[in-house]
Design a protein that fits this description.
Layout (H helix, E strand, L loop, with lengths): L11 H11 L2 H10 L1 H4 L1 H6 L3 H10 L9 H10 L4 H20 L38 H7 L9 H10 L4 H8 L3 H10 L4 H15 L6 H8 L7 H8 L5
Helix pairs in contact: 1-7, 2-6, 6-11, 8-12, 9-12, 10-12, 10-13, 11-12, 13-14
Organism: Mizuhopecten yessoensis (Japanese scallop)
Protein name: Death domain-containing adapter protein BG4
GO biological process, one term: signal transduction
Length: 244
């Protein structure tokens, strides 16, 4: 069972059932696509229901009774901001927080039991050891680098600022062509709700960090000409250094 066991909150499964009753087929398709970088094509092709998707995310420690951050991003990004869906998760979070606050003093997570035939004074108590490869708060490495960028981009700053202003609804396809994951785009959307320019600029910063600063104009023009983007006007302007 996942480290973020649903046993930590008995209403966790009930919340998932309520969500399943509200979600549409297209919602599941969109959520599977957003999980592409986490789950992989082979396992995704076997997933046919919301419950199966949740089970897979649990097995990878992206979901659990006390870990619904990624689920919230999926619902926010794939359900067109539907209030009925988001309300289910908000209610669950409120209940979970109330339970946590009410039982904080009785937390037995780190209790160590001593056998009856052993003198307690002879026991050496040790802090719980971290599990290799597991973090209770899964963070995308690239989105983490956005908050503290290591590599500069002065040499391509004009191009980035220009595209930040000029890209429209096709910006997600453009970012995917550059190699930005849907997870990172969802992260930027959550950090900068209703501010598309900040979302786009944040993705550019991630792109620079992913490539360790080794980015250049040709990478941008190639992405602009991709069949999923086809912004030949912006491509031509970049080629001519026209940033007006």
């Amino acid at each position: 069972m996942s480290a973020q066991s649903s046993g930590e909150n008995p209403d966790f499964r009930g919340m998932l059932v309520r969500l399943s009753n509200l979600l549409k087929k297209d919602d599941l398709v969109a959520m599977k696509y957003m999980c592409k970088d986490i789950i992989g094509k082979r396992d995704l092709s076997k997933i046919e229901s919301f419950f199966e998707l949740c089970d897979n995310l649990e097995s990878r420690d992206f979901l659990g009774g006390n870990n619904v951050i990624f689920l919230q991003k999926l619902l926010s990004g794939c359900c067109s901001g539907r209030k009925d869906v988001l309300h289910v998760l908000e209610s669950y979070n409120k209940t979970r927080n109330n339970i946590s606050n009410g039982t904080a003093s009785n937390n037995t997570q780190n209790v160590q039991f001593v056998p009856a035939n052993v003198n307690p004074q002879q026991i050496v108590y040790m802090a719980p050891m971290p599990v290799p490869g597991f973090s209770s708060h899964q963070v995308s490495p690239s989105s983490a680098s956005y908050s503290s960028p290591t590599y500069g981009y002065k040499h391509i700053e004009k191009e980035i600022n220009y595209l930040t202003r000029k890209l429209g609804r096709e910006w997600r396809f453009f970012m995917r062509t550059l190699g930005i994951s849907d997870y990172d785009m969802a992260e930027m959307e959550q950090q900068h709700p209703r501010n598309m320019r900040e979302q786009i600029h944040g993705c550019f910063v991630i792109w620079v960090q992913q490539n360790k600063g080794a980015v250049h104009k040709k990478m941008l023009t190639k992405a602009l000409m991709d069949v999923s983007v086809e912004r030949f006007d912006l491509c031509a302007n970049l080629e001519e250094n026209d940033f007006s």
